[in-house]
Design goal:
The structure is a homodimer of 472-residue chains. By secondary structure, chain A is α+β, with helices and mostly antiparallel strands. The first copy, chain A, is built from 16 helices and 18 strands. The radius of gyration of chain A is 22 Å and the shape is globular.
Chain lengths: 472, 472
Amino acid sequence: MTIIEELKQIVGGDAVLSGKGERMTYERDAYPLEAAQPLATVLPSTTEQVAAIVKLCVKHDIPFTPRGAGTGLAGGTLCPGGVLIGVARMNRVLDIDLRNRRLTAQAGAVNVELTKAVAGDGYLYAPDPSSQGASTIGGNIANNAGGPHTLKYGVTVNHVLALEMVLPDGEIVTLGDKTEDTNGYDLMGLAVGAEGTFGIVTQATLRLVRQTQAVRTLLAVFGTIDDATQTVSDIVAAGIVPAALEMLDGVIIQTVEDAFHYGFPRDAGAVLIIELDGLAAGIDTLAARVRDVCTASGAREVRQASTPQERAKLWAARKKAIGTLGRLAPSCVTQDCVIPRSKLPEVLRAIAGIGAKHNLRIANVFHAGDGNLHPATLFDERDPEQVQRVMAASHDILELCIGMGGTLTGEHGIGVEKRDYMPLLFPAETLRTMSDVRDVFNAAGLCNPGKILPTSHGCSFEFTPRGGAVAV
Amino acid sequence: MTIIEELKQIVGGDAVLSGKGERMTYERDAYPLEAAQPLATVLPSTTEQVAAIVKLCVKHDIPFTPRGAGTGLAGGTLCPGGVLIGVARMNRVLDIDLRNRRLTAQAGAVNVELTKAVAGDGYLYAPDPSSQGASTIGGNIANNAGGPHTLKYGVTVNHVLALEMVLPDGEIVTLGDKTEDTNGYDLMGLAVGAEGTFGIVTQATLRLVRQTQAVRTLLAVFGTIDDATQTVSDIVAAGIVPAALEMLDGVIIQTVEDAFHYGFPRDAGAVLIIELDGLAAGIDTLAARVRDVCTASGAREVRQASTPQERAKLWAARKKAIGTLGRLAPSCVTQDCVIPRSKLPEVLRAIAGIGAKHNLRIANVFHAGDGNLHPATLFDERDPEQVQRVMAASHDILELCIGMGGTLTGEHGIGVEKRDYMPLLFPAETLRTMSDVRDVFNAAGLCNPGKILPTSHGCSFEFTPRGGAVAV
């Protein structure tokens, strides 16, 4: 019996995708610069099926990789020649416990569905990546995802209470605890953000947050990026913590406006979306203070969403902004560095310089309040010379951010894209410790190999699977 | 040259305490039921000295244990026959960066001193354990300490950006990053709460929080514990997240009142301290809602602190409450379980039953909003029969809480006290994984042995040090 037949025995014939077209479908995620076809993609429906698939892979010495919705930006779900374990069918909300403010869902549940399940009762699941209409909670956990509201509400790890996980040997374990505490070593905290290299998350118990009583959403319009970034720093320095504080530059204002006709001023150098939430009684006072800071820092105009519908439309435009860049170029690579907030003006100027140096257009739409940049470099992936320039520009951007005291990723992970940059951030000894910790969970190196750590530090795409795999 | 002489060469003669009385001074922390004399206590002044001490211990195969202020409740700093490394002299604030809202301090800096260093500029360090006037940031990190304001602001790990740590082989590393992100595996998150078993924290970069514009502190008085615990659940279910929500029962109201004359009603069954913070404009509306919930849930009376001085006096009484139990008995053991908030009424009743069963007085003062209980059992440690009853009652309380879906510790750690309860909370496989992860950092088992994991899972007090140590 072939491995494909054995997989079909576990999950049924319709849940094993191994045809030529199917393998091509799953050869990449949202990172455009690398592709690698899996041997097969399987779509289990239960935790027990995931465990059986993993045990089968271990028996055959084949690598395996978990996959949510494939919205990851760093190639974390590439699985050359291995078994890609898609959790899309494991998408149910299993339990809602409002009294203790928690919810349990399967790993394939789509982020926005969690909030929909409790919105009627006045609650929400706070982390809101821009991909939330598609991305799964399993993928969010693997990448410790953030979102516009991370500024006030924190990233995924701040909202995970417990995980059910299939370890790389196929054992099913529970990590963490449904009360908000850690006892012993924080293995759950370690698994969040491990990009599926410690095992496959199959189920999560998550914190719920009460909807705030009142929200005010402002749009501040600036002539220059410099004025906008300085305003970000000034708002936070004034002691105000907005629920969200996002920036869009002039390039992306144009494409977003072309796509959604929200009413952004086409001649602006940059806009800030500033959302405030809290009690109804104090919120207009706070909004007035924010307006004053914006005006003092050079805002040309400060608008306010006047209805919930207008607010929803503004956020839809923001969250789908990256997609609108397709109007300018067939491909874009989005970086994800984080820098100290106080360095925003300086770093944005330097990124513009990097674009000029490599003759590439770079658009900026990002979580300004967190200092979490998303410079999006536009190009045509069919032109190898452009690809070389894009990679050179990405390299310059990452080195710039690290030089400014920043990091490689805020929310989208290291994946394959940034693993070889890890030595810029960590000394060899720390990388060895990380590798040793991974070996505790993943000694055979079959569970999502080639991610996070530089290739010299462990299993990578040099890995040669049995079974006639195609690695691109 | 003896080890003591070698230690003196590293830190100077006045920083090595190895006389009989000195060893007795350091034979215990705030856990009253076990004591163990170190070979010596050393008080280094620099990270390099800590590294040199650790290397010396490794050379001589002697265990070593870090110690902050010794306020830990679970015996996490007992160091039988080993070298106790006290960080009390490493107490400086090294850097304050308000623009990026962070502060760097040495491990021996006392918690409250951090807030004092930035209060004039309108900031604070949020985690506020009741021991904050004495406990060090190093000890807070080792135990992932909480405090009354944990309910709204989170525990220590939510406020640590980066750590400087001396690994168990004497190497000095930096974990985490000064921007608020994790890249690669979260070794820093793993080290926080590891009770010094992964190395010795020597320096930490911490988040600062802006002081809130307005605070309201209410005292709600109840005839019964039942009414008070039900009110806790009702406040949170109403969608209100107080900054703090604390409960004191009738026993402790008496002793606190005897000690501080705050004006607590001596005939009350329980009181809640409810603190609200936020914008000035909305806060009185919110306070009125909380009053309404309290009254609807049976509060006899709801008072409000009318001046900052009155608020400070109320918090001082709360934070020093455990100490006032010395008026009733020479010793007390304070438990630290966490239960789902919705089970508070049921668990408090059961704890009263456990007190009656073992003929012991149990007082309750705790972080009610988090479900983090601190039942304090009063006894005389000179009476072995009482000690036996106390240990039996502690056992019953821990089993009760775990049976209710709770955990062993909210903020004070596992230490030696609760290590043998870990199998009630975790399957053997998970404990083995924890032990394997510890071995990555602490393979020789010399760094704070015998803590966190059950004694069968690693180095423990069976460890026989060289050098004529006395283990009690």
